[in-house]
Write a structure and sequence with these properties.
Structural class: mainly alpha
Strand order of the largest sheet: 1-2
Radius of gyration: 15 Å
Strand content: 5-15%
Order of helices and strands: HEEHH
Number of helices: 3
Largest sheet: 2 strands, antiparallel
Shape: globular
Number of strands: 2
């Protein structure tokens, strides 16, 4: 949570994003202000990170790992 809060501060400064709690989390600069990252842009970023990792991870594996951890923490299977 601390990392996300730190990112949101940087995002607000770098992109002049507002503090609206319903705003998109991951954004990019566009011609008319900021816009949300597309699914494809997120996939490309994950693939770039994955290429620098020793253990390979796909977007599917990341989603599955997140869902499993969430279910374990909340007990909501």
């Amino acid at each position: 949570m601390e990392d996300l809060e730190a990112y949101l501060e940087i995002r607000n400064e770098r992109y002049n994003a507002d503090g609206d709690p319903n705003a998109y989390v991951f954004i990019t600069k566009g011609k008319n202000g900021y816009t949300p990252l597309s699914n494809r842009a997120i996939q490309k970023k994950l693939l770039n990170i994955r290429n620098h990792m020793i253990k390979r991870m796909s977007p599917h594996k990341l989603r599955h790992t997140y869902a499993t951890n969430l279910a374990e923490q909340t007990g909501d299977w």
